[in-house]
Amino acid sequence: MELGLIGLGKMGGNMRERIRRAGHTVIGYDRDPELSDVDSLAELVERLEGPRVVWVMVPAGAPTQSTVDELKDLLAEGDVVVDGGNSRWTDDEKHAAELAERGIGFVDAGVSGGVWGLENGYALMVGGDDEHVARVQPVFDALKPEGDFGYVHAGKVGAGHFSKMVHNGIEYAMMQAYAEGWELLEAVDSVTDVREVFRSWQEGTVIRSWLLDLAVNALDDDEHLDKLRGFAADSGEGRWTVEAAIDNAVPLPAITASLFARFASRQDDSPQMKMIAALRNQFGGHAVESRSEH
């Protein structure tokens, strides 16, 4: 089948290549002319035979909204737009309604796989009407990993991005657990080879995972992570997961704590810890350190 693909960055570019390897035609557009197959969205739409399928792979928020707005004017009844970026599920509902005014279908696709997806495939979580999902199914089949797993039609519009959001929230908590365990192992004198402890967990343990494998890869490159600064950004999806938990009265203590831990990583001199140090000094006479001592 033919596919128009908008956004050819790290993920989008590799996705274009994987879909082409499966025998499909992909016409890609990117603002970077070095990456793009066409000069404009209008040319991309013109090059595709109807009914068209156009996959949007641009950052969430304003970039996705402006792309959907432009496609609404360019596409025709019976065409389908897929949002494969990291949009919020509530935006999906809005975009689907806007496109439906012109008879254009909409599918949201949560995509996981990162830089490994070209060779290993992409896990796909999809939301939308059956007829619209069926139109895109050959592309989903090309992108997914080999085997029976790695793809799900999760439900109605928004279900794909909601599922991907929860996936990323779980990822936050898993990474935080590995990070805390690593720091504790590094802190004691009796454990002399923390990297090999992590490596030993890769087989036969209940905590083995791809994230653990990646942690070992990182420690192989930099055994004590001395080259890195202790700073970790957060994606919108981590925050959205916590907000959705509040809206639905679902307790997420581990995921919420992992999000707040990332906020803490941005503080070189934590205001909270200043108050804790001051209180410990007030009630217990515990020593405090002044800024001039460092």
From TrEMBL:
Keyword flag tRNA-binding: no
Keywords in alphabetical order: Gluconate utilization, Oxidoreductase
Name its GO BP terms in alphabetical order. D-gluconate metabolic process; pentose-phosphate shunt
Q: Which residues cross the membrane?
A: none
MF terms (GO), sorted A to Z: NADP binding; phosphogluconate dehydrogenase (decarboxylating) activity
Q: Which residues form the 6-phosphogluconate dehydrogenase C-terminal domain?
A: 160-293
Broad class of enzyme this protein falls into: oxidoreductase
EC numbers on record: 1.1.1.343, 1.1.1.44
Question: SMART domains in the record, alphabetically?
Answer: 6PGD (SM01350)
Active-site residues, record numbering mapped to chain = K164
Family statement? Belongs to the 6-phosphogluconate dehydrogenase family.
Q: Output this protein's name.
A: 6-phosphogluconate dehydrogenase
**Species whose genome carries this gene:** Streptomyces spectabilis
